[in-house]
Design goal:
Elements: H1 3-11, H2 14-24, H3 29-36, H4 40-48, H5 55-64, H6 69-78, H7 96-108, E1 114-117, E2 123-126, H8 131-134, H9 139-142, H10 148-153, H11 165-183, H12 186-196, E3 219-221, E4 228-236, H13 243-246, E5 249-255, H14 258-268
Antiparallel strand pairs: 1-2, 1-5, 3-4, 4-5
Helix pairs in contact: 1-6, 2-4, 3-4, 11-12
Length: about 270
């Protein structure tokens, strides 16, 4: 973290930042104080700047507020303490084992597609079946750093091949809004506005609503081999202590019907 960033973070009082996170989580002072096992009076003093929190107090409150590691470091800086969570680059020796594990998970998922993305849905890695999803996508959308949401919903991306575009678009934008609510990331806000401006939004406002009997939103993809249907799951590291590791996630696509499973098995032979 650069000196300019550190100075900027210290200008924002830690109490004000903690209050912002508390309100973002929809918690009262009483609810947070009970959860963190401190007095409401003490919390009020911290938020108003009448009391300077210890490093341990900052981390305890951040834990109960489910603050991302990146922002816990910012809270510590604002309180006058050094960050405690590392932030290693993806290509650093420290993360080599993590990336090796990610790639093993991706390979193990073949012949079904899977991708690893960072906190802004930029592609980190994909398995050998990923081209099945990105077939026909414009080259400029695949240039690093390729953004998975952009290449999915862009009119020169996967969008023309998605049979249920309105439904899938509503699903992705909903995920992005939930993530934005957790992080308040201005770049994600700009991405959300960009994606909303793409064509393909449902003319029918109920197009993104679940139908009776639906349990998950499938991705239905037009393909020369017939329409392929996928369900997706998202995995993250359970005990991250590094900012970069916490922000990695793996999205794995599974066949939603036997026809799709049979096609993928045959294509892998």
């Amino acid at each position: 973290m650069g000196v300019a960033v550190a100075v900027e973070e210290r200008r924002a009082p830690v109490g004000a930042l903690l209050r912002q996170w508390r309100r973002r989580r929809g918690l009262s002072q009483l609810a947070l104080a009970v959860g963190a096992e401190i007095s409401t009076r003490h919390l009020s003093f911290v938020e108003t700047g009448r009391s300077a929190p210890s490093r341990e107090m900052v981390l305890r409150l951040a834990e109960h507020l489910d603050v991302p590691l990146r922002d816990r470091n910012r809270l510590l800086l604002a309180a006058g303490y050094a960050p405690v969570y590392s932030h290693a680059p993806l290509d650093s020796p420290e993360l080599r084992r993590v990336l090796d594990a990610v790639r093993r998970v991706l390979r193990a998922h073949e012949p079904y597609p899977a991708v690893a993305v960072d906190r802004r849905w930029n592609l980190v890695a994909g398995n050998a079946t990923l081209p099945l999803l990105t077939e026909g996508v414009a080259a400029h959308l695949l240039r690093p750093p390729a953004n998975a949401l952009r290449l999915t919903l862009h009119p020169e991306g996967m969008a023309p091949r998605i049979a249920n575009l309105g439904e899938w678009r509503a699903h992705l934008l909903g995920r992005l809004r939930r993530h934005l609510a957790l992080t308040d990331d201005p770049e994600l806000s700009a991405l959300h506005d960009e994606l909303r401006g793409y064509p393909g939004g449902p003319a029918d406002p109920e197009a993104g609503l679940p139908r009776a009997g639906d349990v998950v939103v499938p991705l239905r993809l037009r393909h020369p081999g017939g329409e392929l249907a996928f369900l997706s799951t998202v995995s993250t590291f359970g005990t991250p202590l590094d900012v970069t590791v916490e922000e990695l996630s793996i999205e794995s696509f599974f066949p939603a019907d036997e026809a799709t499973a049979a096609y993928l098995r045959a294509a892998a032979r």
